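Hi V.,

You were right to ask for the full record rather than a summary. Here it is.
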Amino acid sequence: MKTSSEKGVSKGIRILQVIVGIIAIGLSIAVIINPGFGIEILVFLLSLTLLVVGIERVSIGFLPYIKKSSTRISNIVLGGLAIALAIIVIAFPIFTIGILVTLLALGLLFIGAARIVHGIFDKQTSKWSRIFLVAVGILSIGISFMVFINPLVGIFIMTFMLAVNLLIIGIESIVHGVSGKKNLASSETTTSTN
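Predicted structure:
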């Protein structure tokens, strides 16, 4: 049986899920209305991630329990590089967007090629699945070339993917918060301990 404090925490988490969901949906709508905002979010998240990782690596390099000097130096150097990249991302957002678009195009190119190879050579998969894999591969490669030719297409794809992901995350978070349902694994753990 749950205590009142456990119920309070559960209710607090549910409220937090609803709030996070509303924020995610709001961000999704903002990205759909203004795609430039989506690019700013991507650049901000990239710079923030690099900065946090860099600070963490440098901090680890100075921890007293790390005895090997090569480990210390590599952590400090890699952390410094990550911090420098974060500063570059903040200082040159257009350059960063160009790199993100190029990585998107390369990713689509490799995914497309892998799908085509898988569709052609995997004899254990059904004929329709293989045709579908090849078609998706060709589509991915086509989009990749479109992104290489016109980077604005890549920017649109990135912002669209960000908006859709934020929308899905927001809806899922609100549904979990309102319904109050737990994962099956955590429910089984709770019932087995009672």
